[in-house]
Amino acid sequence: MMRPIRVDVETSYVPDQSDPGIQRYVFSYTITILNEGSEPARLLRRHWLITDANGKVQEVRGDGVVGEQPHLQPGQGFRYSSAAILETPVGTMQGSYHMETDEGAHFDAPIAPFRLAMPGILH
């Protein structure tokens, strides 16, 4: 059964929290999760793979997002912001949200890879 959860991402570099001199690059990201399916679903857990330009991978697993486990009715969305810290000015993030329907069925909503990049680094 198809359970379309759409995940849209916006990213930005945070210069006032970054310090390239000590290889600290902070990126904020805002995620919009939209239930495009026909049944309600709750976001139970998140799983992220954050990869910097050196190939170093941080794996992040946890319950919910920003301390919440949003319950999305069909057509409803949930938006939140968070941040990632890299040792390089460019990296990528990807992952998935583990969801549960009101009937108790579990499924993963994939989060396609997206780029974190300091402005002016990529052409």
Q: Layout of SSEs?
A:
Elements: E1 5-13, E2 25-35, E3 41-52, E4 57-63, E5 71-72, E6 77-86, E7 90-101, E8 106-117
Antiparallel strand pairs: 1-2, 2-6, 3-4, 3-5, 3-7, 7-8
How many strand segments? 8
Mean pLDDT across every amino acid position: 95
Give the helix proportion (percent range).
under 10%
Share of β-strand residues: over 45%
Oligomer: single chain
Rg computed from alpha carbons, rounded to a whole number of angstroms: 16 Å
Output the CATH homologous superfamily: ApaG domain
What is the annotated CATH architecture? Sandwich
Number of domains: 1
Q: What fold name stands as the CATH topology?
A: Immunoglobulin-like
CATH class: Mainly Beta
Q: Structural class from helices and strands?
A: mainly beta
Characterize the largest beta sheet: strand count, sense, and whether it forms a barrel: 5 strands, antiparallel
Distance between the termini: 41 Å
Number of helical segments with 4 or more residues: 0
Low-confidence stretches: none
Order of helices and strands: EEEEEEEE
CA-based shape = elongated
What can you tell me about this protein's structure?
With 123 residues, this protein is mainly beta. The protein has no helices and eight strands. The chain has a single domain (5-113), classed as ApaG domain (Immunoglobulin-like), CATH 2.60.40. The chain is elongated and about 50 Å long.
